[in-house]
Specification:
By secondary structure, the chain is mainly alpha-helical. The protein contains 19 helices and 2 strands. The radius of gyration is 21 Å and the shape is globular.
Amino acid sequence: MLKINLTTLFFSIFILIFFFIRIPSHPISDNDASRLAGIMSIVQSSKLNIDDTPYSKIGDRVVYEGKSYSSKPPFLNFVTGNFIKFVFQIKPALIQNQVAIYKLSTFLTNIIPILIIFITSRKILNLKHSLFLIFGTLIFSYSQFLTNHILETAVHLLLFYFLIQKKQNVTTSLAIGVLLSLILAIDITSGAIVIPVTLCWYIFTHKNNLKIKNLLIILLSSLPITIFHFVLNYIQFKTLLPPQLFPSIYLSYENSKWLYNKTGFELLDDPILIRFFNYTFGTYGLFLYQPILLFSLFVKRFDKKWILIIAITLGYILLNTFMQKNYGGSSFGPRRFLPLIPLLYILSVENINNLLSKFKNSKILIALIGFIYAITILISIIGYQNPWNNYDCEINGYSKYFPLICAIKTQNARIFLL
């Protein structure tokens, strides 16, 4: 036991140091620049609008009553910005230092969550599988730049960990409620799927011994963050819903990339069935970019965990199919689906172990699984070089390229230079 704890501690320290020193000094896309603008404005001006930042005209923005705002949900920007502002009281000069704000923001929303993913997965999987999640998947690809995806991934995994505990008590119920509300505040589209699926699954799973007290604790503990999220949204835009749902009000400003002068990915409007295929196995397919997760799709008996994970996966892919036409813009791979990766990988490991046991560690099967692992890792390393590198495909005409092939082409010999 002591050996396991020391090993986990060693890799935890290594993960913190490795990823921290690789945080860049500035954003490289509209996506992370928009998040930085929202945080900077809180740190430097205590404002929700971003007009006083260098990114007031960034492409990823929303405009209301003549003021520009980050297009990202306000909760994470607000909390991160105020925490950084408090920390920088130690050295006030840092408040005006954009590099320091970007690095600390990324550390808080990427690196700490990566550590949480590692430690939580170690409670479910062995060391090599936990390290694979960190260094061999799209989590690694998006580890350098400021996003909400890795934080959301950590919250999803924590939620799953508490849901599968045999004893559901006050502590687990409290954690479930808080984590559900965090998912909603970080990514409202994900919350729209995860919350109803989780609550239905929880009630069904505990139907024979459901304690109303625990269910009430889940609901009550989810209220503070949920209410705060909607209050912040209303203060900014006078609506509780995402402003992107009302383009004529919030996105119709001059030179808006959302409505005017659309090019590349913003012009895409594939039929629903094609879009669903592209989100699963096609051009931006989760299972194309992370083929090891294909093993998660098989189940030989009724399995409560499998039902929960597959229901969330299918629901979230379908929601994106109907609502998101551009597959995540110029990003590398299906970035919106990062939170699904650890959950699907847990299922994959179980199924792989079952297959190896059934076929008595067949050398052919071992070689095939090893090959699929290698492909998954290679794709993730390609993405790590520049998770927004499909911009090269966009400016050259999306229809000319298969995005993954385009990414390989643009990265060529640099893919192994970490």
